[in-house]
Amino acid sequence: xxxxxxxxxxxxKMGRLLLEHRDGIVxxxxxxxxxxxxxxxxxxxxxPAERARFTGWVKSFVRAVHGHARQRNQxxxxxxxxxxxxxxx
Length: 89
Known about the structure:
With about 90 residues, the chain is mostly helical. Helix content is about 70%, strand content about 0%. Helix 3 packs antiparallel against helix 4. The two termini are about 15 Å apart.
């Protein structure tokens, strides 16, 4: 949990980029779910456990998007901005 909590500033920055470029990301139902969790909680993470949980949600979102793209044999994103916002975490 401590490692996840330490990664929170990076996860929060990534979350903001992902939300900004969401229209260019190819989503399935799981990715949509995780993106909703990110959007609802990005500015409401004060406790260490909440920060760790948020970091896990960003990782889950990235895995869901990349997994969906692999299954469909297509890119994870469309425009370049979205591609830069969706790194492998």
